[in-house]
Design a protein that fits this description.
With 339 residues, the protein is an alpha/beta fold. The chain is built from ten helices and eight strands.
Length: 339
């Protein structure tokens, strides 16, 4: 089964038919983070390996938390390379290691979260081990970009642990201080550019907006995200002053999400998002989620008729159409930021 999945990974084509290679000769992508960028590191028990995940592309689950491609796939294809191999498949041979490596795990955070997954420090340690094994040369690392997507699960863990809104600013400061140390560590290992994703509008996630039947985003949730992103921006500016170069880049995912949902356009010539706050795949009732089955194997979820017209796939993750719209909103700035 693993060989079949691995063969499927190798067969995944680039998204773009033309080269979208940024300036500077970047040829490797190393990914750290959570389910927004994970391309298959989770074990077979992970939701991302269950039907109907992957239903749009490639037609079966590949360990991605979506109905198709995720943000990593778009960044890699824009660079003109294939998506980097997930860490769990690294021993399949040097052929698959040529474009970098993905250390991201769904549910992960800067710190330990509600999910048993390697946190960011552990992911960086895995990267260090890979470098010590000399799978990549110093030249490879100097021609690489690191993509980082983290912190959403940290907030979920904080609130689940009875954290208060009043003490949230202190937690955010603590969180980003550690995140900044981790970003410096990645650059210190030789990676030339480090792109860190801002936090998405947390109040617009279906698991939040569903509480009020999807009409509006939660103001409180979005305020948390805005504050996080403001502190992150200051941290990135400080890091760049220390290096006297634009090594660190903040990818404004928050604005890209909002732009994609407000425009309600997937792509010229295709369907519009019919209800951007409503998820495509959901449990048949509140006791179930997308991908759940009962003890008899009966599906306990339903999927919308037109996933390409939905921005969100499940309660947290965008559809491939959603990620396409988010990337389109960001693409014009990528050449400036990473060129």
């Amino acid at each position: 089964m693993e060989k079949l999945i691995f063969s499927l990974f190798l067969a995944l084509p680039l998204i773009f038919t033309e080269a979208h290679v940024p300036g500077g000769g970047f040829t490797k992508l190393f990914v750290f983070g959570d389910s927004y960028v994970d391309t298959g590191n989770g074990g077979r028990q992970a939701t991302s390996w269950k039907k109907p995940y992957g239903i749009i592309f490639p037609g079966k689950p590949t360990g991605r938390y979506s109905d198709g491609r995720v943000f990593t796939d778009y960044i890699a294809s824009w660079m003109g390379i294939r998506s980097p191999i997930p860490y769990r498949w690294r021993k399949m041979g040097k052929k698959v290691q040529g474009h970098g490596m993905n250390f991201a795990y769904g549910g992960s955070g800067v710190f330990d979260t509600l999910v048993k997954a390697p946190n960011m420090t552990t992911q960086i340690n895995l990267f260090q081990q890979v470098l010590e094994e000399k799978l990549y040369t110093k030249r490879d690392i100097k021609s690489s970009i690191a993509l980082v997507s983290l912190a959403g699960n940290d907030y979920a863990a904080y609130l689940a642990g009875n954290g208060t809104i009043q003490s949230l600013p202190a937690f955010t400061t603590y969180l980003i201080r550690q995140l900044s140390l981790n970003l410096k560590h990645i650059h210190g290992m030789g990676v030339r550019k480090v792109a860190v994703m801002a936090i998405q509008p947390l109040g617009c996630l279906p698991q939040v907006s569903a509480l009020t039947s999807y009409p509006n985003c939660s103001v409180t949730g979005n305020s948390i995200a805005k504050f996080h992103n403001q502190i992150l921006e200051k941290s990135v500016q400080k890091l760049n002053k220390e290096t006297k170069d634009s090594v660190y880049i903040k990818l404004d995912i928050y604005t890209a999400f909002m732009a994609a949902m407000k425009s309600q356009e997937y792509h010229p010539g295709t369907s519009k998002f019919e209800d951007p706050l409503k998820q495509c795949c959901r449990g048949v009732n509140s006791a179930y989620s997308c991908g759940d089955v009962d003890k008899n194997g009966a599906y306990k979820y339903v999927v919308c008729k037109k996933p390409n017209s939905a921005f969100f796939w499940d309660g947290v993750h965008p559809t491939q159409a959603g990620w396409d719209a988010v990337f389109s909103a960001l693409k014009s700035s990528l050449h400036i930021l990473l060129g």
